[in-house]
Amino acid sequence: MSELDSQFALQGRRVAVQEYGISNQEFLAALAERGAEVLRVPVYRWALPEDTRPLRSALHEVIDGRIDIALFTNATQITHLFQVAAEESLEEALRQACRRLVVASIGPVCSEALKHFGLNVDIEPEHPKMGRLVAVVAAQGPVLIKAKRERGI
Fold first, then answer.
1. 62-77 residues labelled b (16+ CB within 10 A) or e (exposed)
2. Facing residues of 102 across strands?
3. Which of 66, 105, 108, 142 shows the greatest Cβ crowding within 10 Å of its Cβ?
4. Residues 112 and 73 in one domain
5. Measured between alpha carbons, how far is 130 from 32 in angstroms, rounded to an integer?
């Protein structure tokens, strides 16, 4: 925000913010605090599917320790995972389980969401691309799994 502050006076200006599926409440609030009239422009919205059984199944696989590596490719996935976990009162069990597995994030926005929910990111590729994520996970994942098991995590 300091870069924005030095370039523009926001007081009384209308600022359009393009959203990518979820709102960044901190950013929107910071703009409003600076006197901007904020216009949210949601380009698309992601919602849970009608059938959440596959997600619930994956949630239980993680909690039961049957998953070694979890790859996350967008922030909404994490929000939905924790929404389903909350419906089953399993948020803390999910956090504990994720400490045992390798958590891989496609990039900074996704990593920020993981951290927001209390999860540590073990792998994030240098460039936020699916191919890079898979390559880094293939190269580093087995070593990280072994290290976590040796430490008893």
1. bbeeebebbbbebbbb
2. 69
3. 105
4. yes
5. 35
Closest to 83 measured CA to CA, from 55, 45, 42, 123: 55
Query: Is 101 in contact with 66 (CB distance < 8 Å)?
Result: no
Q: What is the pLDDT along the chain (153 residues), one digit of tens a residue?
A: 566 666 778 888 899 998 876 678 888 999 999 999 999 988 777 788 899 999 999 999 999 999 999 999 998 899 999 999 999 999 999 999 999 999 999 999 999 999 999 999 999 999 999 999 999 999 999 999 999 989 886
Q: What does the block give as tokens for 107?
A: 């990039």
Is 47 inside a domain boundary? no
Q: Which of 2, 39, 49, 47 is nearest to 19 (CA)?
A: 39
